[in-house]
Amino acid sequence: MIVKMDDSVLLVYVLLVHVLLVHVLCVCCTLVAQHMHTTHAHITHNTYTHNTQVYADEAVPVPRPEHWGGYLVRPERVEFWQGRPSRLHDRLVYERGDDGGWKIVRLSP
Fold first, then answer.
1. pLDDT single digits (tens) 61-76
2. Who contacts 62 (Cβ-Cβ below 8 Å, separation ≥6)?
3. Are 107 and 82 a contacting pair, CB within 8 Å?
4. Which stretches of 1-109 are DSSP H helices?
5. What is the C-alpha to C-alpha distance for residues 91 and 105, in angstroms, rounded to an integer?
6. What one-character DSSP code corresponds to residue 35?
7. Do 80 and 48 share a structural domain?
8. 3-class SS at 15?
9. Number of alpha carbons in the 13 Å side-chain half-sphere of residue 96
10. Chain centre to alpha carbon of residue 25
11. What is the pLDDT of the chain when averaged over all its residues?
12. Range of the structural domain that residue 30 is part of
């Protein structure tokens, strides 16, 4: 199941899990539109250096486009498969129960 994350959930996720990484990536993304052509690498580097100074304080939010968001993938069923030369493969399925826990089932090869 894939559930669209609302901004409040996305913000909490970003803050708790990826604060530094997202901050650095957002600073990089403020450089130029990624589809734009550039012939001068030093301009991109200078812009990056400037933006890392402007947004050095992680408390200062880096602006992000409104269309940026995220999706939370909530698997209902996951199968792990390990092949064997005998073709008697080992297959385990994890299925989410009604209580939110996981039930493990072994499948035939």
1. 777 777 777 888 889 9
2. 23, 26, 27, 30, 55
3. no
4. 7-17, 19-29, 41-54
5. 9
6. T
7. no
8. helix
9. 8
10. 12
11. 77
12. 2-72
Adjacent-strand bridge partners of 93: 79, 105
* Contact yes or no for 12/22 (Cβ under 8 A): no
Cβ neighbour number for residue 104 with a 10 Å cutoff: 9
Tokens standing for 22? 């997202």
Tell me which amino acid residue 52 is. T
In this prediction, residue 72 carries a pLDDT of 84
Residues forming a β-bridge with 105: 93
Looking at residue 56, its amino acid is A
Question: Looking at the structure, do residues 67 and 81 belong to the same domain, yes or no?
Answer: no
Q: Are residues 61 and 8 in the same domain?
A: yes
**Distances from the Cα of 79 to the Cαs of 73, 94, 103, in angstroms?**
15, 6, 12
Residue type present at position 30: T
